[in-house]
Write a structure and sequence with these properties.
This protein is an alpha/beta fold and 572 residues long. Helix content is 29%, strand content 26%. The longest helix is centred in the last third of the chain and has 21 residues.
Length: 572
């Protein structure tokens, strides 16, 4: 067997590499589950062999290290560099133009993912002049300025080097994704939104999300561009997990509900609307909820989950202290009241009024109280409603500007009802449904991002049901699942635990060793490289699907049928 190594290279001792570890989260989000992280602060370069794949995050290599990597590429290694140092660029023939485009936008060329409109980076993009003559470099994306004028310099290029291939991203894609998703750290704790008088996650996005491209999941598109580059330069067919449980799932709804002052009948009405679409809710209950223990027991038996609707704003205390105090006290009170009928407190959360003081300073308190997926990031009531304030509908784990990774998923909201939206959802329902249609159609056909939805039972029953049910129907009629917050978190954790190790056997066939499989999920490989596929020696189930402008063979895995460690063989 020839092991086909996949390495994620960085140097944690360097401030330039702060977002190097976040690149690993991007790989996992894109289903690239086979990369081994190598930290040059702790050890040497890996022993790179022909057939290996290398992603070099933004860091400063010593000259000998840079030469060793490029020499390995000439022998058959595939390499992708995120914001390569000038030494690497010059070694490959690119001449520094001694300027940057800031803030830089990335305009992907036709035929590549993310080619609709220029994407934000919030970062400077160093300008390099292409080599004259010699190795031909293909431009994957151009650098643009804030007016979308091309700078005359590439943002992403691909070329051959000996027996290997290399892609250069002239910007730190990992940091760009983090900045798009999590907003401006310097605005943490300020009230900037003009709608609510207390800090929200929304406040981190003042003059941040370019409304010209707010309808695009920009962070997801950057990530897909990286995954495409890695697939292109990999010396072997690169196997990855799909985003969802079935190949036919091109998006998924994720539903949560703030109970607020809703009546038991309003809870039941919203629950029944979901059940008609084979869906369930995670309901968050106020301390003063009108639901009785018997009401909760009955709804839980129908598949719905429950947790506290923590209310830090209702305390006579500075929010910085009120949030952790309320998390601890109200979680304990919920367990005390509902523990007999809802023994599992939801590990997902939406706080009442969605306060978010600071940038990520409240995350440790959430994790300490058992919360691992937060619906705190909601777009502004009108300007970005139904669009992607965070550049994504999909979840990723919170990553702080000091390089700390929190074991908690950020799940942005796309569609929601709220008292501030009463007139819009009641009087302009047709417009709201049109916005939903555009987002769901694009998710189904192109970007495959998730569709997260929040509805209050009282809002649903008094003014928002035409819009919210339209969103349910768009997903259900297309055959897409709608998860409760709890169901979604369980799937995310199962998916994130899967590993894929790739090898070649003596017959030259690609062998994918899957480990830690739980439940159902498809593996996908480039269709041209997979005319015959077996799982554990039997013909694989799954067909060929078009995704990201290419053809992929989907291999449906199920731990009940294939075990937790199935073996896939891809042959010719």
């Amino acid at each position: 067997m020839q092991r086909l190594g996949q390495y994620l290279l960085g140097d944690s001792s360097q401030p330039e590499n702060t977002y190097g570890r976040f690149a690993e989260q991007i790989l996992l989000a894109e289903g690239l589950m086979g990369f081994t992280r190598v930290d040059l602060a702790e050890g040497p370069l890996p022993d790179l062999q022909p057939g290996d794949l290398l992603l070099v995050t933004r860091c400063l290599l010593r000259r000998a290290q840079a030469e060793a990597i490029l020499e390995a590429v000439t022998r058959g290694v595939g390499a992708v560099f995120l914001q390569p140092q000038q030494l690497i660029a010059e070694r490959l023939g690119f001449a520094p133009a001694c300027r940057v485009v800031y803030p830089g936008y990335v305009s992907a060329c036709k035929g590549t993912p993310a080619c609709e409109l220029p994407l934000q980076t919030h970062l400077p993009i160093p300008c390099y002049d292409r080599p004259e003559g010699g190795t031909a470099w293909q431009t994957i994306a151009q650098a643009c300025d804030a007016e979308w004028q091309q700078a005359g310099h590439p943002a992403v290029v691909k070329g051959r080097l000996g027996h290997g291939a290399v892609v250069l991203f002239f910007y730190d894609l990992a940091e760009a994704v983090a900045r798009i998703r999590f907003g401006k750290p310097d605005l943490g704790g300020y009230v900037t939104n003009g709608h609510w008088a207390w800090p929200h996650a929304l406040d981190l996005f003042m003059n941040h999300t370019d409304e010209r491209v707010a309808h695009l999941p920009q962070a997801d598109l950057h990530a897909q561009l990286l995954a495409s580059a890695l697939t292109d330069v990999a010396p072997h067919p690169l196997a990855r997990l799909w985003y969802y449980e079935e190949a036919a799932h091109r998006t998924a709804g994720v539903f949560e509900s703030d109970g607020d002052t809703s009546t038991p009948e309003q809870f039941r009405t919203l629950a029944a609307a979901l059940e008609r679409r084979n869906a369930a809710a995670t309901f968050y209950l106020m301390k003063e909820t009108r639901l009785s223990e018997e009401d909760v027991r009955a709804l839980r038996a129908r598949g719905h989950a429950f947790g506290p609707h923590v209310d830090p704003c209702g305390r006579d205390e500075e929010l910085y202290f009120a949030v952790p105090d309320a998390l601890g006290e109200e979680t304990a009170l919920f367990r005390e009241r509902f523990g007999a009928v809802a023994p599992r407190v939801s590990p997902t959360l939406q706080c009442h009024y969605a306060p978010w003081p600071g940038y990520m300073s409240m995350l440790p308190a959430h994790v300490e109280n058992g919360y691992r997926l937060l619906f705190a990031y909601m777009p502004s009531p009108l300007g970005l409603w139904g669009k992607y304030m965070c550049g994504s509908g999909r979840p990723m784990k919170f990553f702080d500007r000091d390089g700390a990774l929190h074991d908690c998923w950020q799940q942005p909201i796309l569609v929601y009802d709220d008292l501030s939206l009463t007139e819009f959802l009641r009087d302009r329902a047709e417009e709201a449904c049109s916005i939903i249609d555009a987002a769901v159609t694009a998710a189904l056909d192109r970007n495959h991002t998730t569709t997260p939805i929040l509805s209050h039972p009282v809002s649903f029953c008094t003014y928002s049901s035409p819009v919210i049910e339209h969103c349910f129907d768009r997903l259900h009629d297309a055959g897409m699942p709608i998860y409760s917050g709890d169901q979604w978190l369980r799937f995310l954790d199962r998916r994130a635990a899967v590993c894929i190790a790739q090898q070649r056997n003596e017959q030259g066939e690609l062998v994918c060793e899957i480990s830690c499989l739980q439940g159902r999920i498809p593996v996908m490989v480039p269709a041209a490289a997979a005319p015959q596929v077996t799982v554990n020696g039997k013909a694989a189930r799954g067909g060929i699907e078009s995704r990201f402008g290419a053809q992929w063979r989907f291999i449906q895995l199920d731990s009940e049928e294939h075990g937790h460690d199935p073996r896939i063989v891809v042959g010719g």
